[in-house]
Amino acid sequence: MPRLCTKSNLEKDKGYAWVISVASFLSHFTHIGLSYGTAGNLTIAHQQFFNIDLQKGSLPGAIHVGILLMFSPLASVMIKKFGCRVTQITGGTCILLGVALSLRSRQLWHAVILYSVFAGLGVSFCFNASSVILTFHFERYKYIAFSLAMLGNYLGIVLWPLMSQYLLNEFGYSYAMGIMSTFTLINILTGILYVEPSSDNDSEKENPDKPKELELSQAGSETGADNRAVELSEEEVKVEVKLSKPVEETREIQETKLRQEFIELLKLPKVWMFLICGMFWCATDAGFFVLINDYIVYNAGLTEYEAAFGITLLGIGNIVVCVCLVVTGSLKFNRFILYFCSIGLTGILTVITAFTSNKTMYYILTTLWGMANGVAVASILGFASDLCTAEQLPMLFGMECFFEGIGGIALVPLSAYISQTAGEKFGIIFIGCCGIVATFAIFPIIVKSVKKQQELHI
Questions:
Q1: What is the pLDDT at residue 158?
Q2: Residue 142 burial (C-beta neighbours within 10 Å; 0-12, 13-18, 19+)
Q3: Per DSSP, what are the bridge partners of residue 7?
Q4: Rg for the chain (alpha carbons), in Å?
């Protein structure tokens, strides 16, 4: 890892660790919070600015969410190779350029390349870096640190819908994107703060190992220094050769181990159930954010501000659940059942939202939807950890994000197509049904978990 990404004498759970926690909070506010908080408003804005239909107008948002999830494995590789600081700054730069250059967008494909792909890739890098950096600085208070980071995400979903709608109404699409891009500078500034505690391996790289005998001889008398230097250089070469072999062998062992873990995961039926569940659930999650504003404005008679306020209430529901989960963190829940119920409830509420006829009903449903969604997001890591070993968890999580990205890119545009051809109500019903299908995908895991629990109580 580069030296500029590490710093010695950093203690976990105290001091600089809390600076990192606040930086992660701010970063989550300006990447994931921005992406999901503005998705619905931008769907309408794209239709109006580019004079296109719903199917094409929803495409930039769907691809954006899909890209930020699908490229999580690449972001993990970046973090491992270059560190969280470089990855965060790179991602922040991509978001800044992608959103800022959207000011010059004149055709739909401009928005797809700049906002969907370029900014989506940046969000993926920043999301992973601002989450992983917490693991380096927290041990005892890691759950509090992660909850604070997710609070930044939810606060973004609360504030960005109304903020972005105000900018779009007052300044138009182009200037609104330019103004919003200035907020993404936060991702670069927080990236500068992302320093990781240096490990022993880093110090060894800075000061290559030498035998103590060689160091003592170098510090000895200068008599016969030239001859001695030749002897030392020969001995150093031998030492480097001996050291390089174990390093190469270690890398080969690690690569072999990774391949074996990957193959082992692919052989597990429950892993495939989890991945398929993630793909369909992302269709409900992303599809709701991308499509619901347009549906409410043109079918329920609400204004764009009123539709955006519904997403704000959704974010408030997320925050309420986040706080409740932190408070009840010491209690034991069946993670499988909790995850199963929250996903199913999200799908059912989405279907019911398709029949919304007034503002009050819409606000109640979005608040409940936000609470159910918050439980699902908070439970996903615990659900995944019960499916595999701790060593396999990062790989499984990356695979799950990849499948979620596929669901976002493939199924959300399909729902927009259904909305365009059969009616918008049926498009919303479709994404709700995707959430219900997601529960059926993991239903065998739930049944097995319940049976196992009953056996333990007998």
A1: 93
A2: middle
A3: 197
A4: 25
Other beta carbons within 10 angstroms of residue 260's beta carbon come to 10
Instruction: Report DSSP letters for 29-69, one per residue.
Output: HHTHHHHHHHHHHHHHHHHHHHT--HHHHTHHHHHHHHHHH
User: The tokens 């700054």 sit on which residue?
Assistant: 89
d(CA 304, CA 158): 15
Non-local (6+) Cβ contacts of 203 within 8 A are 8
pLDDT computed for residue 251 by the predictor: 66
Non-local CB neighbours of 27 within 8 Å, separated by 6+ positions: 88, 126, 130, 152, 186, 187, 190, 191
Question: DSSP letter string over 387-445?
Answer: TS-TTTHHHHHHHHHHHHHHHHHHHHHHHHHHHHHH-HHHHHHHHHHHHHHHHHHHHHH
Q: Which of 150-159, 351-360, 382-391, 416-425 has the lowest mean pLDDT?
A: 382-391
35-60 pLDDT, tens digit per residue, is 999 999 999 999 999 999 988 999 99
- CA separation for the pair 134, 126 (Å, rounded): 13
Write the pLDDT tens digit of every residue in 230-286: 444 555 445 444 544 555 556 677 677 777 878 888 888 999 999 999 999 999 999
Contact 149, 131 (CB under 8 A): yes
Contact between 115 and 98 under an 8 Å Cβ cutoff? The reply is yes
Segment 322-375, tens digit of pLDDT = 778 767 655 666 678 888 999 999 999 999 999 998 899 999 999 999 999 988
Per-residue tokens: 200: 């022993």
Tell me the C-alpha distance between 193 and 183, whole Å: 17
Q: Minimal CA–CA distance to 408: which of 157, 120, 130, 160?
A: 120
How wide is the angle at C-alpha 141 spanned by C-alphas 139 and 145, nearest 5°?
105
- Residues 119, 90: Cα–Cα separation, whole Å: 11
CA atoms 14, 16, 18, 21: torsion sign: negative
Average pLDDT of the chain to the nearest whole number: 83
User: Could you give the 3-state DSSP secondary structure of residue 116?
Assistant: helix
> By C-alpha distance, which of 293, 416, 368, 411 is closest to 36?
293
How many Cα atoms within 13 Å fall on the side-chain side of residue 125? Answer: 26
| Contact yes or no for 128/157 (Cβ under 8 A) | no
